[in-house]
């Protein structure tokens, strides 16, 4: 039988595996006390050989079991020592409010800004890397800001026209007028679908006109309940100035 231990090194022991270590250790102790044939001088080493677990870890498991009567809880692999952070958790909420406040004002926030406020609160200057790591643990990420869409910028006179329009609409409704709306649309003469089925042998011989052609305008009056009968107006748009509002 091979002496190779089929167990990955560095892998944390589960609760069941630690329970097995305890049972093997207890059996080794029992054999040492009762049996005259088995020569067991060190139960910890013998348990380590049987289970494939290091002797130091066996000692820790048995020690914890003797002191508490429970199996040692599982640990996370790697160096997970929790060190005391330089930034107290009590001021994390203040940092969050500061970051969100900068964003509400339309301003960017970087680690230099956080460094300045922490210097005022803690009376000492913290390294930028320490601040960046702490912000990462808090759930923040340093990423590119989005571009502000120019289409959302509204000029003052446009806003005033909209307010005036809504104000007049409300007054007319209060006076009992029946409001008539206009639905405006248009269609180009050469408008058509861009795809079609073609034969692989004959190829795509169908061509669409390059230009848009004439522009047809459709205007229909409607009420709140629906379209008004015989209120459709269709005309061809010209290059002359003005539109149908002046007709």
Main sheet: strand order: 1-2-3
Helicity range: 25-40%
Radius of gyration computed on alpha carbons:
40 Å
- The global form is elongated
Mean pLDDT: 78
How can the largest sheet be summarized?
Answer: 3 strands, antiparallel
Count of all domains: 3
Structural class by secondary-structure content: alpha+beta
Please tally the helical runs, counting DSSP H or I stretches of 4 or more residues: 7
Q: What proportion strand?
A: 5-15%
How far apart are the termini?
104 Å
Reported by name, the CATH topology of the largest domain is Arc Repressor Mutant, subunit A
Q: Which blocks of ≥5 consecutive residues have pLDDT under 50?
A: none
CATH-derived architecture of the largest domain: Orthogonal Bundle
Quick rundown:
This protein is α+β, with helices and mostly antiparallel strands. It is built from 7 helices and 3 strands.
How would you describe this protein?
With 247 residues, the chain is α+β, with helices and mostly antiparallel strands. It is 39% helix and 11% strand. Strands 1-2-3 form a three-stranded antiparallel sheet, with no helix packed on it. Helix 1 packs across helix 3. The longest helix is centred in the first third of the chain and has 20 residues. The termini are far apart.
């Amino acid at each position: 039988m091979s002496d190779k231990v089929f167990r990955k090194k560095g892998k944390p022991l589960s609760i069941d595996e630690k329970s097995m270590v305890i049972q093997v250790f207890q059996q080794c102790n029992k054999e040492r006390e009762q049996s005259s044939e088995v020569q067991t001088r060190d139960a910890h080493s013998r348990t380590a050989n049987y289970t494939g677990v290091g002797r130091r870890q066996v000692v820790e498991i048995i020690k914890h079991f003797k002191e508490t009567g429970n199996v040692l809880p599982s640990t996370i692999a790697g160096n997970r020592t929790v060190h005391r952070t330089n930034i107290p958790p009590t001021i994390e909420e203040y940092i969050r409010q500061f970051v969100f406040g900068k964003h509400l004002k339309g301003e960017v926030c970087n680690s230099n800004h956080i460094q300045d406020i922490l210097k005022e609160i803690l009376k000492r200057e913290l390294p930028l890397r320490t601040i960046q790591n702490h912000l990462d643990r808090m759930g923040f990420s340093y990423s590119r800001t989005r571009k502000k869409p120019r289409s959302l910028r509204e000029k003052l006179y446009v806003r005033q026209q909209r307010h005036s329009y809504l104000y007049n609409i409300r007054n007319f409704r209060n006076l009992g007028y029946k409001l008539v709306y206009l639905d405006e649309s248009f269609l180009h003469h050469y408008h058509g679908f861009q795809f079609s089925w073609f034969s692989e042998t004959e190829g795509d011989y169908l061509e669409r006109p390059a230009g848009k052609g004439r522009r047809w305008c459709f205007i229909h009056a409607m009420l709140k309940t629906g379209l008004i009968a015989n209120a459709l107006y269709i005309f061809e748009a010209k290059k002359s100035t003005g539109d149908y509002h002046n007709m």
